[in-house]
């Protein structure tokens, strides 16, 4: 068996090569590299896919989060609740805007923030909650939305890892990830579920006024050309990336189906190793398996990772350090022990290869190697 990577963007490209090459050639022919028609076309297709009124394409997922928080008009010192077990970008934009991140611990099985955790973290200064739909499944949104409504708090969903997943409310209503709060944000980083061939991102909302504000902020705070009504940023999705995304969007549901099939394979193949915990599903969410993350006893985790590496299988630790223990975030005064679940997860998690092009042969090989490690 050759080296088995975490993601395989090359095979994914080769499987749609004709379609993709034509889309890229189309942008080259038009030479409208910025704000071209390809951007608006993708925007509208993505709006239909999500079932949301406005998609605002931007430069990357981090920008999407930042622009969303800026559009809500939050003031320095306002508190924003974020989970402590996530990629740094979620809290980084909060800190950059002079807002105060208020961390909460996560559920030990779904890796997501919980309504109980959020409720306890609310203070009179709480202005926003950023639920992170980590690894591909949605946070228990119904209860969090209820809390937010009760306290008049904004919700900005970090859906950078969860595109392709859905959440079902108790009345039967189904919403796509990122379409439940005031804003949803996503990233088109190449390895994300819907990824481009460089950097890209988007925020989305059903609110006309918020959409207009976000669009304005993303474009230097400009309303009429060279009239700047607010301080903005420069963040845009370029036409090549939009054309690439438009091709991939057509295949997204198939890509997600392949990820789910790979996850089901792992679930079954690893079920008979009692020491391993396979990812648990949140009852009201579908899972788009951005990551397939198992929990391995702490004393065995790094040895398993090394054993897999020696056998040509990549794996990753998402995330080795919870946000409150990151050096740059010392300033907020959190100490070790403050978030025991996230601290434990950082010592036991291991993400296995997961992408849209995994074959049963490769999955069987990876699973055999994990069994071999356990039987040594
Ligand atoms: C990838 C990611 C981001 C940031 O996206 P970029 O496009 O890399 O800026 C933010 N939050 C989470 C949870 C992510 O996984």
Give the tags.
Aspartate Aminotransferase, domain 2; 376 residues; Aspartate Aminotransferase, domain 1; two-stranded antiparallel ribbon; alpha/beta; binds pyridoxal-5'-phosphate
Give a description of the structure.
The protein is of the alpha/beta class and 376 residues long. The protein folds into 2 domains: 237 residues, Type I PLP-dependent aspartate aminotransferase-like (Major domain) (Aspartate Aminotransferase, domain 2), CATH 3.40.640; 123 residues, Aspartate Aminotransferase, domain 1 (Alpha-Beta Complex), CATH 3.90.1150. The chain is built from 12 helices and 11 strands. The strands form 3 sheets. Strands 1-9-8-5-4-2-3 form a 7-stranded mixed beta sheet, with helices on both faces. A two-stranded antiparallel sheet has the order 6-7. A hairpin with a 5-residue loop joins strand 6 and strand 7. The longest helix is centred in the C-terminal third of the chain and has 32 residues. The radius of gyration is 21 Å and the shape is globular. The two termini are 20 Å apart. The protein binds pyridoxal-5'-phosphate (PLP). Pyridoxal-5'-phosphate binds next to helix 4 and helix 5.
